[in-house]
Amino acid sequence: MNIFRLCGDMSHLAAIIILLLKMWKTRSVAGISGKSQILFATVFTARYLDLFTSFISIYNTCMKVFFIGTVYFTIYLIYMKFKATYDSNHDSFRVEFLIVPVGGLAFLVNHEFAPLEIIWTFSIYLESVAILPQLFMISKTGEAETITSHYLFALGSYRALYLCNWIYRYYAEGFFDLIAVVAGVVQTILYCDFFYLYITKVMKGKKISLPA
Amino acid sequence: EENQKPKDEL
User: Fold this and answer.
1) Per the annotation, which location comes first and is thus the protein's main one (chain A) (predicted)?
2) By CA distance, what is B5's nearest residue in A?
3) Exposure winner among A32, A37, A156, A164, fewest CB in 10 A?
4) Rounded to whole angstroms, how far apart are CA atoms A106 and A90?
5) Digit-coded pLDDT (tens) for A60-92
6) In chain A, what are the domain boundaries?
7) Separation CA B10–CA B7 (nearest Å)
């Protein structure tokens, strides 16, 4: 463990807590993409299949349980409890255009042609594009609530911090995982446009409103 | 190549 990865995990944790607080406090899921949350649930389920078979540390297990638990709870809030506030018209990204290519790529490009490894690779590739339905929804509605912007900023920062973690681990431990790094770079690049808006607007107390 | 090490990252 290193400071970059710890900050990355804390940023990820913060993003999930911000999202849950937004939903619980406002009792609304307006502006939140249920499709992105479904993709995140798929990512965590596919990545943490080894939850019960390989024990890394208490921290690792607790975080995995928390991530899986909260993402399914978020889906429950969106599609059941606060269903009335879910904006399905604007959450119209065709996720099959993500899942099929990512699934195919995981078969073709992986570290080892073994079931668990391919499923892990699929989760890595899928995570890098899982935010697209959410960003697409914001571009369609033309704006994002400030709390949703904080959620996205924390979520985007987590993988950016993981990139720093991989640089550190390369020099400190000689650890290098090309698949995770390339997917992490793609994932972080997808947030750049949003990061720019967040820093130039939200930090000055304005709301993010894209030209619709 | 073989797995370099267990997946210790989240």
Assistant:
1) endoplasmic reticulum
2) A175
3) A164
4) 29
5) 999 999 999 999 999 999 999 999 999 999 999
6) 3-201
7) 8
